[in-house]
Amino acid sequence: MRHAAPAARQLQHTCQQFRTICSSSVSASGWFGNVEQAPKDPILGVTEAYLADDNPEKINLGVGAYRDDLSKPVVLNVVRAAEEKVMGKLFMEYLPIGGLKSFTEKSVKLAYGDSAQCIQDARVAAVQSLSGTGSCRLFAEFMHRYMPGAAVYIPKPTWANHHNIFRDAQVEQKGFRYYKPDTRGLDFEGLMDDLQAADEGSVVLLHACAHNPTGVDPTPEQWQQLSKLMLKKHLYPFFDMAYQGFASGDCDRDGQAIRIFLDDGHNLGCSQSYAKNMGLYGQRIGCLSLVCADKAEASAVESQIKAIARAMYSNPPVHGALLVDNILGTPEIKQQWYDEVKGMAERIIDMRTLLQQNLEKSGSSLPWKHVTEQIGMFCFSGISPEQVDLLAKEHSIYMTRNGRISMAGVTSRNVDRLAAALHKVTS
């Protein structure tokens, strides 16, 4: 026992030496010395390369935001009018976790239709979200918790961030054929075959309109066939709708896929974003809604989505919600918004026509009809990564390496130069 105290002191001294060594090691290398540099986002990389180019005729076809014919950002007149109406009217208090209730109610009607039976039956769970990305992330987390073991089937290709969202929610991802490079169009046969073989009880991610990145959408008849197959196979449809109104210029037409599925009896999910169709990119305003079996189920589902949101970010921002609520809730302003979003869509459609015409006039022997057959902000050009590199190196024209053209970057002033460059690199 006489030796116990010295032994204890020796052990204490040894431990202190160990802590000192560890502390020195941490201070020398930092707490996060093992953290590797994350790869650059491919779209942000395009913008960086564009900004570093000193050619006055450079063209940025990577940006996923609307630009006018002078390549300038646009704030809609209805947004300015709504800002004047809501400015200074409310305190800056927190919104509820689920967001502004009148905003989510109007959003659901915009997506599903004012007279949708699911709305009349009060069986839609809906929360305000951080734009479309936030909606998808909330759903992915909800899926992980309450659809255990279910996989999500994602179109090949899709918006790149879809993969990040479901990966981080620890949801298994599987792919289904969507785009056919040979025709620059929809691989409907492959799509149907892959979903016919999909595991029952899985989720299928669908772009409601203006598929990103391809600009290729199913026809109404193809949506009907797909709906019936998914109903038979017990597959859950989750629609990402980032471009309602922006694709065709008609909000009802752009929402027809969802309404076809509702009419067939699907319970489904929908992610809405107001970034593109109202130009509210920086406001991060969106809505997640899930159609449920009945009112009680909708209440339970909504409560759990709010619980997920509480831990992620607690409350959504107020300003964007007030703007959208005012625009959708004021008949004359809502009609003006319909007119403005139609104008944006028509400019994109006009640029598609001009690009195809200039490509054909350039003497190109390649088929370019897909430029006008595709729809929405993006055109999947079909050119190779190497040809994309040549466009940047020799012509100061920048786009993502998969050949996706942001049609918002095409203007009446640069379309002829773009067509000539495309002809040169593809000849």
UniProtKB/TrEMBL annotation:
How is this protein named in the record? Aspartate aminotransferase
According to its UniProt record, the EC number is: 2.6.1.1
Oligomer and partners: Homodimer.
A GO term (biological process) for this protein? amino acid metabolic process
Cross-referenced CDD domains: AAT_like
Quote the catalytic activity from the record. Answer: L-aspartate + 2-oxoglutarate = oxaloacetate + L-glutamate
Q: Which UniProt keywords apply?
A: Aminotransferase, Pyridoxal phosphate, Transferase
Enzyme superclass (EC): transferase
Family annotation (Pfam families): Aminotran_1_2
Which family would the database say this protein is a member of? Belongs to the class-I pyridoxal-phosphate-dependent aminotransferase family.
